[in-house]
Amino acid sequence: MKELRLQQGLSQDELSIYSGIDRSQITKIEQGKVNVTLETIEKLSRALQTKTSVLLEETKMLHPFVKWAGGKSQLLEKLHLYLPKKYNNYFEPFIGGGSFFLNLKPGKAIINDFNSELVCAYRCFQDEDDFNNLKRELKNHESNHSEEYYYHIRSMDKDDNFLSLPIYIRAARMIYLNKACFNGLYRVNSKGYFNVPSGRKKKVNTYDEENFILLREYFKNNDITILNTDFEEALKNAKANDFIYFDPPYDVIENKNSFTSYAKNSFDKNEQIRLAKLYKKLSNKGVFVMLSNHNTTFINELYKDFNIHVVNAKRLINSKADGRGDVEEVIITNY
Ligand SMILES: C[S@@+](CC[C@H](N)C(=O)[O-])C[C@H]1O[C@@H](n2cnc3c(N)ncnc32)[C@H](O)[C@@H]1O
Within the chain, where are the H helices? Predict the structure, then answer.
């Protein structure tokens, strides 16, 4: 919507006058923070001299298709606040559930994660056949669901041929386990096997049809590259005026049951140091960089040369009750 408004050379105030929609509401719509009624869309379409159907597609919000540890839904508003005003390509090297990326819906992006199963799932939205096969497999899992079935599907990664299975099979397995497991958490053991127990749900819903269709439309109509590699490798083509959002596994807060084993390699202090060095290097290159992490002394020390904004965030996933609740986070920018 913002693009359409700027094409018409209108400010938010002017669009507010022409459409009769409150300016603060227009800001929220452009930031993807609110769902919009059809009446509002009709008013805005008239003011922007465009078809209602065009705006309808643009204003629908996308949501993550998995529940992911470290999910950023609670922090979206703050992240929007600290976005650079203008940038070229969007990079997100630790995509996880991708809540910020899906909220932002960039036209050109490079997303990445070390977790191959998660990457298989993102890739299914890029191809019509994989997408349809994924939905069919998920329906299959839903109708076969039981505790026994869960453990049967969970053990698929022990098979030698697992990595050569079609991506929609691996994706469906991952999404099903994510929805059916205890506390919705993806965790692998030291051998790299998914090891979360069953959530003991009687019935499992694996996906939301409308969100899936919107995700498919988004990946079909935009230029999105999906990588499955280490974060440093994923950023080797980032140039001046590109924008990178880093949401790495969190630095561990002492005495908190923090969660850092998303993938086989756990993200320790040395990894945080390697990331901070890369952050500095990219910053010197003229790339806009934004990073979120826990507000720990270690992180403050690593990024002391940059702008550190302290924000509160609600942690959604944690297997121990005492780890829940508000945790301070930082959003660090070089601009
Ligand atoms: C905090 S999560 C991302 C959360 C996500 N932004 C969200 O909103 O749900 C961190 C992600 O980094 C990935 N990861 C861990 N080590 C990595 C590495 N060396 N390179 C790339 N990705 C890595 C994990 O698999 C995990 O999905």
Answer: 2-7, 12-19, 23-30, 38-48, 52-59, 76-81, 99-104, 116-124, 128-144, 147-154, 167-180, 209-221, 231-234, 269-284, 297-302
